[in-house]
């Protein structure tokens, strides 16, 4: 039985010690011609695709169950909480974002699907960092009696997958929040957009 | 006529020079009891609300126009591009996220509205940073002939507001992407959720 993850210490990270992220001091000239400085974080892992990460909206069709998606629950040290997210991951150095989407979906959830759509490159938090991503939609068609597949997690990865009927997603995210879990902003926005559509 | 913003130089930012953001080296123990290190970025500006930022979905009702929202276009140095976002901003030290939502909406768009809903605290990019936010929905009711209000921008802020019929939002974001603008991931997800709802 795994125990609860726990933070022992948070220290300042010297720039020359950082392996995964780095800080940039951007000297720029604004629209009025004034010289300014902007501070930004960046990932050091961006490969030749130019895209840091992907997130995957899985659409599961099943003959007798409601159309569902998959969300994942995992402890994230920066938030010191169980976070609720779409399956997601970094794009490998020589991979395309489309390839990364199908690979990450398989690793984190066990499911293999067909890529229906991938977004253009969108920016994750552009006031603070250069990180970017693409958002994939992957279709999984199940037959009656299909078993839930095995996840293909790496050593040291603890990821719980949850299949949620899309119609119940927003309420499920509200409930996770009430329990103290932290919902990823992008997943929340997707569910909020879906719910908002019902009011139009 | 403002000129195009331009980046002159990007340098490593030493941690002791950073005013707005900081790097954390998080020592933690995972679910198997293994000691690990996680690198994370954080904002230094979080106030007593515990929430870094807000974004605002404005719902504009008008007697003879389609229900619309407001998006903003502004140059963001970390992305080195014009970014397309919901109105958004940092929560001031002694402010609540609800207060910040109405203030930022007024400053960036000129509109004053009524707060209909605010989300729980959600996490912006939890694999890489501790930044968090709340997502507000604000209603603006216009009468026939109401004039577009004046923005209340601070000196040095160059923000273009665009009122978009909600039914046209997704296609508008696709078009901006094709033009080389960078759409914020949260705004994209909201529009994608809204569009997905039409397929159900």
UniProtKB/TrEMBL annotation, chains A, B:
Record lineage: Eukaryota, Fungi, Dikarya, Ascomycota, Pezizomycotina
Record Pfam families: NUDIX (PF00293)
GO molecular function annotations of the record: ADP-ribose diphosphatase activity
Sorted UniProt keywords: Hydrolase
Any GO BP annotation: ribose phosphate metabolic process
Tagged with keyword Cell division: no
Domain Nudix hydrolase intervals: 46-187
SUPFAM superfamilies found in the cross-reference section: Nudix
Lineage: superkingdom: Eukaryota
Gene Ontology CC terms, in alphabetical order: nucleus
Organism encoding this protein: Melanomma pulvis-pyrius CBS 109.77
Name of the protein described by the UniProt record: Nudix hydrolase domain-containing protein
InterPro entries registered for this protein in UniProt: NUDIX_hydrolase-like_dom_sf, NUDIX_hydrolase_dom
């Amino acid at each position: 039985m795994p125990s609860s993850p726990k933070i022992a210490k948070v220290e300042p990270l010297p720039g020359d010690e950082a392996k995964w992220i780095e800080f940039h001091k951007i000297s720029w000239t604004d629209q009025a011609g004034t010289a300014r400085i902007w501070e930004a974080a960046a990932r050091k892992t961006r490969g030749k695709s130019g895209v840091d990460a992907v997130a995957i909206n899985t659409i599961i069709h099943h003959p007798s169950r409601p159309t569902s998606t998959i969300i994942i629950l995992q402890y994230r040290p920066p938030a010191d909480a169980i976070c609720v997210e779409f399956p997601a991951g970094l794009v490998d150095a020589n991979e395309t974002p489309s390839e990364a989407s199908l690979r990450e979906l398989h690793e984190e959830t066990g499911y293999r699907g067909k890529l229906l759509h991938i977004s253009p490159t969108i920016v994750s938090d552009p006031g603070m960092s250069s990180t970017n991503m693409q958002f994939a939609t992957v279709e999984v068609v199940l037959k009656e009696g299909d078993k839930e597949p095995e996840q293909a997690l790496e050593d040291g990865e603890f990821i719980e997958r949850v299949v949620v009927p899309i119609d119940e997603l927003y309420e499920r995210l509200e409930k996770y929040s009430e329990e103290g879990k932290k919902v990823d902003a992008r997943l929340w926005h997707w569910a909020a957009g879906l719910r908002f559509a019902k009011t139009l």
